[in-house]
Design goal:
The structure is a homotetramer.
Chain A (H helix, E strand, L loop, with lengths): L5 E6 L4 H10 L5 E7 L9 H4 L10 H5 L2 E2 L9 E4 L3 H13 L3 E4 L15 H4 L10 H5 L3 E4 L3 H16 L2 E10 L11 H4 L10 H12 L2 E3 L2 E3 L4 E8 L6 E9 L5 H10 L3 H4 L10 E4 L7 H4 L8 E8 L5 E7 L3 H17 L5
Chain lengths: ~350, ~350, ~350, ~350
């Protein structure tokens, strides 16, 4: 351990998002992976042997040598990044929080629970206030903070400046989502080669409710969902990384195209002001080319933390339509949680 | 020539849609290809040598041996199927019509022209009446009839029963279109492998205006566009054949989900009544599985002439949302024109 | 049951090869599916509910309604098509054979067993003689006949005419195999999109030994492996159906290119003479185009039962090199077993 | 211009390889792009407007603003990187060399010319001696140095240590090549989605003759081709970047598997000794996993300059077989030429 770094643990370290956590934490200036856990069959093995590593960079050497621990709070560091399937998270995350751990979760299990903050630091950092009412925090000092679904994050980053400047009345989003969003092995090649799958279980519900929670307001210690109408349609396509979304919106206040683009380009928020290590210089970037953004070429902007927007044009049914893409396992999962952890640390929640 | 068949010609016979024409006409009970034309550099060569055949069935042997003619009305049969790029169609189609030919066109060049019928036989067979006012027809007996863009046809087949039963107020469609829609060589593999391209030139405009013309009414010898609001967003994906569309609608009259599905399942129209040779038994088929329709598995239903619909569910912004797919080079191009020709013949326009 | 048809059963009916069996048997003139079995968790459900159907044609309606039986000889028809994983086949196939069933197997479990015929009807129909020494046959009347691995069949169809006419001395084959060869879910999309996997477990060993058994001779009631040197390298590529192989050979007798092509084009054998229902008119077809065969365009020739060969040219290390493709789940699996069954029936083994 | 850098020009700057040149030169410690040329229709426009940029990193800002010059020696820098189609290179490269320029070419046009060095710096740096006999060099001081075809480079990097330690007697290679090797637009998506194309024009001939020239010896001022037997079969697959090759070899001297792996792992050569800026630490890396190397995961090792080898195992026909992959537009094209330029500079040829 480097003396100046805070030890962290990773729950669900062998999955695709767990791998991204290790990759992103490899050279992190504040945190260092000191512990990792996965399913029982991996326990006790060295991480490098337990994992089927699916990223293009090599396994971080420090993590490679760590033994896979049992998914148990005993002996785990205080700060835990969790990349678990929802059914397992529903059981384990409360257990770690109750034992005094700060659980920074990518799972959907607790996202919509009333006293659990669902946070994108650029969008609703102030929702962390809800932690004060969270029962675990009051009892053990532990807590759970979550980030949204991979398909909601890019959308909400694009919507936040519009909500701030003009107010949102209606939002429709149709997604074309990458296969890495389903984990590994995830989507079978026989299902997706030369195909589109117009269905992802529970994804539309998550997008619709999470979007409204993220853009909601803190009232009396809990989050009041935003009131705009919202509809999502989710499709899977043969792309490795990067969710593309075709979006239409109706704003409360009339806005011209240049004003909207200006709102995106000028958008900066708490993570940029605090210069959090994983914060991109620009959370949203508008690309002027007529055929961008595209996942293959734009997914890695801002080291995968920038949502790229393009093709703003009038919509004949609502008011404006545009395309947004974002990296589903970086900005949409591991990077999202990491930025939450950085925000929590900067605001003293991890002391 | 078989004595009981009507000779037809194909303009643009070497392109992807031209190839589909030859494939679909190979064993057609009424028509027989007697003449074909392509670009100048192919002239005089045997078709089999001039074409880069991209379909899975072999080149029809009759067509293979035909010489590629000059794209000139002299010596061409009276009935001409045209599969030309818009810029060339704008010049050649009027020339053939003025010379007395029945031009059954898949091109966008003349589709929106006031006196040119834009027809899907199941949807608006009665629009053929407009031909009576078409100047070519009055002067030379020739005429031009068009079919819609490949992305509009599947959508409009799904919309037509809704318009009939409940009336349409608003329509939003986001497409995920196959690469064959761009012809050959068309989309470069470096552009689409592992990618989504959120832009197809002029496609959204075509979808929006053609949909309203198709569902419009004949008034005083021309077509009055339908009045509903319409918005399209068009994307290209790594699929060979089959356009997938995520659609939301608001209806004029309240309708339950079962009524809507019933409207689709019961939908039959002129081509089915007339038993036109290329008419599918069911122009629209609703698939009850939660993850269908999918282009890879459903594109060939009804020999590629059936639009498959699925996933009907309430929409939080409009009223209902669903997915539709259709075969873009069969129902969306060559099969569309062929069915138009069959309708024209059945109604005496080709005598 | 149609009175003139022989009832058959399918073991492993829900897998990809099991599905192909049902598809190919749907309108078979001799056989009719009367029984099917799969894993325990499917038992008792209707087939249509137990299967995740992955073929483009609909589930055959007769099979759809059949209940999934327990994988047990009691009550099963005498003739059993088996599409089981090797480890399960090793246990179940002997059990069915011992109980008097004719097991026509696609599994690798028993292929190399000395008294089990490994047969491609066009290549080594006479190997069925080995059945006379098979212990199950002598005891219960039951027996096991196998077909080769999907990667060996196309190769051996191309090699057989060369062996007949010129003799084989050395054979090298490098495969580019379709994902359907790994079953369903099989290859994860994250493993194969935009990728080549240069490894398929045990595949090279199977190709090398099966090729020599197929082209071997019956001596004293068992098969003597052919003596030529053989080397295989197996790769997985992002293709749905159709294995492509780059092959080099050294022949015993000098042969010119035209003689070799003539040997392929003239190749006809027992199944063609007996006019077996699934026998293609041409087991091997040479395609003269410089860039064929290609899986996407040529895999369905002869209803998926023809191996397509092309690009014959001199090899600087051995003597000749060429490309061969064949359909891995039709000619390479279900169609292979079906043709074996037809051969067995025609030769009285199923009476 | 930075005062300490040498100005260079790029011929064919808008193609895929030209783009790689600009990307790799963006932060090069020795060279700086001062001039670029492309086809006539691009002349005079800013590079950013003339190019259809297909790389994932943005257009280098310096290059973006450069005007596209006419492909003419007047005003061009002394050092020219050439990324031209063979037919154009055949005309332009001699013209630039005759005018006194050092032409570092990626084209096939002059590669096999007797007095033109074909160089991989790790393999045959000493072949540069041939320059002394090159007529252009003697007349104008200009010269042409070439690098091999993208499919030959990875192979030859893997073969060179074997030739050094054990001697080569026979080499067979079957390639599975990425679409970027065909340039842009290059391979049509309709040709390659779900497909393998078993043919690349002139590729096999290039691989066979270039491999022998690269591993040949300088004798009397020219290159004597190496004497081993060589056979190549070339296929195109749906991969973006990275050529995969299945290789078999027969060595002159018996070698064990560990010795061979050791030869690859220990392989270092002139570029590593001279610490050339683009030289990878390891020109060849052996990956021990049973299913590696794979283009999607291994293509970027050594910043795209390392050839990855794996799966060494005995071959039943020759002696050993293995898989090699390398990045076709970095190590196989732009990076190859750049490393040649660095070698030339380090050895005083560019002074």
């Amino acid at each position: 351990m480097q003396p100046n770094k805070v030890p962290v643990g990773v729950l669900g370290a062998t999955g695709i998002v767990g791998q991204r956590f290790l990759q992103m934490l490899e050279r992190h200036p504040w945190f260092e992976v000191a512990w990792l856990a996965a399913s029982e069959r991996s326990e006790g093995r060295a991480y490098a042997e337990a994992v089927r590593w699916r990223l293009k960079t090599p396994i971080p050497s420090r993590a490679a040598a760590l033994p896979v621990s049992s998914a148990n709070p005993d002996g785990a560091p205080k700060i835990i990044f969790a990349a678990l399937d929802a059914s397992i998270a529903a059981e384990l995350e409360p257990r770690f929080a109750a034992a005094g751990h700060a659980v920074i979760s990518n799972s959907s299990a607790l996202r919509m629970q009333r006293d659990v903050p669902l946070v994108i630091p650029e969008v609703n950092a102030e929702h962390l206030k809800v932690l004060e009412c969270q029962s675990w925090r009051r009892q053990s000092g532990g807590f759970v903070v979550t980030n949204p679904n991979c398909s909601a994050i890019g959308l909400v980053l694009a919507l936040a400046p519009l909500e701030q400047h003009f107010g949102l009345e209606k939002v429709m989003a149709v997604t074309m989502q990458a296969v890495s969003g389903a984990g590994y092995p995830g989507v079978a090649s026989l299902d997706i080669l030369g195909n589109v799958i117009p269905y992802i279980a529970k994804e539309e519900e998550k997008m619709e409710e999470e979007t409204r929670k993220l853009l909601g307001q803190v009232r009396d210690g809990h989050i009041e969902l935003a009131g705009f109408a919202m509809s999502a349609q989710c499709n899977r396509v043969a792309v490795e990384d990067g969710h593309t979304e075709s979006v239409s919106v109706k704003l409360k206040k009339k806005a011209g195209g240049e004003e909207i683009i200006e709102a995106w380009q000028q958008f900066r928020a708490v993570p940029q002001e605090l210069r959090l290590p994983s914060a991109p210089e620009r959370p949203v970037e508008y690309l002027p080319s007529s055929d961008r953004p595209q996942p293959r070429f734009d997914v890695d902007r801002g080291a995968g933390m920038t949502a790229c927007v393009g093709r703003l044009r009038p919509c004949g049914v609502l008011e404006w339509k545009f395309t947004v893409i974002s990296h589903n396992t970086i900005r949409g999962a591991a990077g999202a949680a990491l930025l939450n952890a950085e925000l929590l640390k900067a605001q003293g929640y991890l002391d």
